Amino acid sequence: MYNQNRFSWLNRIMLAIALCLVQIGPLLAAPIEIRLVSLAYPPYFAPDLPNGGVITEIVREAFRRTGYDAKLEFLPWARCLAYAKAGQVDGIFGVWRLKERESFLLYTDPMPPIQVGFYARTKANIKYTKFEDLRPYKIGVVQSYGDPPDFVAARLNTDVAPDDKQNLIKLRAGRVDLILIEKGVARYLITRDMPTAAGELVWIDPPVATNLQYVGLSLAKPGAKILQQAFNKGLSEMTADGTLNKMLSQSGVLEPIKTP
After folding, report:
1. Is 20 inside any structural domain?
2. Which three-class secondary structure state does DSSP give residue 110?
3. How far apart are CA 86 and CA 89, in angstroms?
């Protein structure tokens, strides 16, 4: 009887240990590594920003919470798109949602929005209420960015540059009359790289578009839907527990999300 009771207790203990291991096993497992790419887009994400910038931090944390180690790499934008189309990466982060990209990207839930619009030389005193008002001007755009559809449909006179900084240089030099650029990006680049131009260049209201930022997952890679669900779950948790708004407040470049 003694031996039977002893073995009975041992069996119960072993069963309890086994159940604990089943429950904590996923927590002990090594995170799954995924590779995401984007261009440098300061002040929101770039390799020389603290922790890679606030959007970088949000993406890493959302995936970390669901068992993924997101390795983020910064490349030229055209290469980011090509790699995603070919399935050479798991996706692109900080991407805008455009219809023409839906053939090769599966979008997550959105991250905080940014404003896209025009910068001009202050002395030019350019004003507009509709795109038709801008027909006399040459407008600098960036190659492969995916400009707002209404702007594209207006078929204005555009001049292509490889990046936003080059467009700011061209604008200051008078080689273009306006440039299409994200408002925070322009302020950041002017402050960092062209401080003497601060009074020479100005944002023009109204903005052309308010764009949400997403992670776009490559449909050429298996498991895109699983990664989409994982990111969405992590982002939802961050929103609910206040982590997201804390990150936004500390960033100084994006406003916290207001709740009803």
Report:
1. no
2. coil
3. 8
Mean pLDDT in residue range 12-37: 66
What residues make up the domain containing 244?
31-113+212-251
Are 119 and 204 contacting, i.e. CB atoms less than 8 angstroms apart? yes
User: Same structural domain for residues 129 and 198?
Assistant: yes
* pLDDT, tens only, 230-257: 999 999 999 999 999 999 999 888 888 8
Number of domains making up the chain: 2
Examine residue 238 and state whether it is found in any structural domain, yes or no.
yes
Residues 109 and 218 in one domain: yes
Arithmetic mean of pLDDT, 161-179: 96
Burial of 144 (0-12, 13-18, 19+ CB in 10 A): middle
* Cα–Cα dist 126/178, whole Å: 9
Give the number of other Cβ atoms within 10 Å of residue 101's Cβ. Answer: 18
- CA distance linking residue 239 with residue 233, whole number of Å: 10
pTM score? 0.75
Please count the other Cβ atoms lying within 10 Å of the Cβ belonging to residue 193: 11
Please, what is the angle between helix 164-173 and helix 183-193, to 10°? Answer: 70
Residues above pLDDT 90, as percent of the chain: 80
What pLDDT is attached to residue 2? 46
What do you get for the CA distance between the two ends of the chain, in Å? 66
